[in-house]
Amino acid sequence: MKIKNIIITFVSAIAILFSTSVVSLAKVVGDKIILGAAISLTGKYSSNGVHTQNGYNMAVDRINDMGGIKVGGKTYKFDIIYYDDESNPKRAAQLAERLISQDGVEFMLGPYSSGLTKAIAPVTEKYGVPMVEANGASRSLFTKGYKYLFAVLAPANLYLDVAIETAVELNGGKGVRIAQAFEQDAFSQDVRLGILDAAERTGSKIIIDDKLPKELNDMAATLAKVKAVKPDVLVVSGHTKGALTAIRQIAEMKVDVPMLAMTHCDAAKLSKQHGKNSQYALCASQWHKTLTYKDDFFKDGMTYAADFEKLFGYDPPYQSAESSAALLVFKDAFERANSFDQKKVRDALADTNMQTFYGNIKFAEGGQNVDKPMVLFQVMCDDAGKCENKVVAPLKWASAELIHPIPKWSER
Amino acid sequence: MDFLIFQVPMLTLQAVLDGLLLGILFALIAYGMALQWGVMNIINIAQGDLVILGGYIAYFMYLYGIHPAWGVIVSPIIMYFVGVIIYKLVINKVVDRDLFISILATFGISILFMQLMNFAFGADVVLANSGYGTTMLFDNSVTLPNSKIFSAFISIVFAIGLVIYMKKSKLGRAIRATAQNARAAKILGVDTEKVYAATFGINAALCGVAGALISITFTIHPYMGLPYTIRSFMIVIVAGLGNLPGVAMSGMGLGVFEEFADYILGTEFRIGSVFLLLVLILVYRRFKLSRKREYLK
Fold it and tell me: Which CATH architecture has domain B4-266?
C-alpha cells in the first residue's frame, strides 16, 4: 500500500513537471518572443555581466515601447529569460542546454566574455539556435565554421591594429619598434595576433614580447626592459587588471614611451582610478558615445548615453552599447524573415546589413561583424586634473587630435 | 635580445632591488602562515583571501578620503577580530584533526571569502593611490616606487615587532610553549584554546597589514588571493617551520629569484620557475635527510 502511494506520488510529480515544461516549451508565448541568456551576475565577470544585462534590458524596453516587432502582420514584444552563469564556462554551457531543452528557448543572446561565449556556442550550434552575441570578440569564435553565431562586435585581432598603423603613419611610413605584453588568455592572445599581423604588414619589429600571468598584478620586469630598449610603441592587454597595473607602474617607474596603447581602459575606469597618470594612454574601444552612427530607436550615441545614464545612473561602457545593439539586430532579422522558423531567422541574420547607433552591422561568413572599425581614444586631462576620453582614430570619427609623442615624465 | 639583463648592468640592480622589496612583503605573509602552521598544525588555504580582505579595508579608507597608509594600523586591528571569529566558528573544530581536514576547512573558508568579497565589494579590480612618488637612482636608470619601499619598511617593522613580542610577552611565551608541546603547556596552566585563537588572530592581523600594503603597491580583486597563499606556502616550505629568520631569507630569495626568472626565461615562466625551485628543494631535502637516516613525515 505504501509503495503504491509512493509510485502514485512519483508519477503525478513527473506528470506535473512535464505539463509545466510543455506549457513553457514555446519560443513565442502569446505576443512575446522569448529570448534566453546566461549572464555573469556573480563571479569575476559580474560587473561586466551587469553592464551586458543593462544593455539588453534597455533595448528590450525601448523596442517594446516603440511598437515591438512585426511578424506576419502581428505585433510581438521581446522578453528575456536570464540565468546567472556565475562567470563559469561549464555552468554557462549547462544553462544554455537548460534554456534550450527545458525552457524551450529558440533564440539566444550571448553571455559576457569570449571564454563563456566559446562554451555556449557549441550548444546553440548543436540545437540550431540562432545566437546574437555582443561580448565575445575572440577570433577563434569565428574560425570554427559556426552557422548560428553572430557577433555585433569587431573581432579581437582588430583591437589595436589601428594603433600600430597610426604609429607607422606618424613615423613617415617606416616600421616602428614595438614592445608588447599580453595576458595569457584567449582574448588578449588574439589581440596579440592582430599586432603580429600589423607588424608584418607594416615592416615593424617586435622587440619585447612578454606573456603576463593570469593573476598579474606586477609588471615591473617588463617595464624595466621597456626602459632599457626604448621602443616606439608599448602595447599592453590584460583586461582591467592589466590596464590598471600598467598605468600605475609606468607612472611609478617613470617609463617614457612615445605611444602607449591598451585595451579595457573604460572598463578599468582608468582616469577615475589613476587621474592624470593615465593621461595620453591610447585605448581600443568597440564604441564611443561621440560616434555619429544613427538609428530610429536610440537616435545616436549621445542620446543613448544620456538615456542610459538616466536609467542606470552611470555612463554606458561599450559593453552595454553593443548588448543593446544585439537586440536591434534580432528585431531587424525577425521582421525580414517574417517568421519564427529558426532557419529563416538564421538566414535573415546572415543577410543583416544595417546601421545602429552602435555602428554598422554586417556579418562575415564566420559570424563576426566586418562593417564596424574599432576606435581609439586617448585619455586627455585638463590642468585641474579632470580627464576625458577623446576619440583620435580613425580620423573620420576623431573628436580631438592625437597627442604624439607622449611628453616625457620629467616634462610633465 | 636574449639575456638583456646581463647586457644592461642597471637592469640587474633593478631586478635585485625589485625582488628584495617584493620578497620582504611576501615574507610577512609567510611569517603569519609559519606561525599558525607551527603552533596549530594548520595549513591555511584562506591566507591569501585574508590578505585581500585586509587590502579592501585600506581601499575603503582611501575611498573615504583617509590616506591608505593608515590601513596598516586599522586593517590589522579589524583583521585580528576576523581571525578570532574564524577560529571560534571553524578552526577550533579542526585544530586537533589531521592536516587534510584543516586544508579542506580552510579551502572552504577561502571560497566563502572570495564569494562574499565579490558580493560585497564587486568584481572590479581596485587600488589605493598613496601618492608617494618615486626614488630615482643612477640618473633615472633604476627606479624604485616609494610605495614599495614603504611596504618593505612596514613589513620589517611588523616582523621585528612580532619577534620581540613572542620573546618578551606572556602570550608570546604561551604561544611558543604551545608550539613546542601543546599537552605539556596545558598541564602547566596555559589556556591553549586562547593561545590558538590569539595565534590565528595574529596571523590574520599580519595578513591585514600585508593586504593594506598590497592595495598601495599593486592591485586587489576578490579572486586574487590564491597566488599569495601559494607563495607563502612555498616560502614556509623552503624555510622550514619555526625558522623565522629563514622565512625572511627565503622570502627575499624567492623575490629575487622570481625577478631573474622573469628576465631570463620570460614572464610566462615566472610562477612556473618558482614551482620548479620548490620541487628541487624538496628533493634535495629528502636526499639530505635520507643520508642522516631520518625521514620527512
Answer: Orthogonal Bundle (1.10)
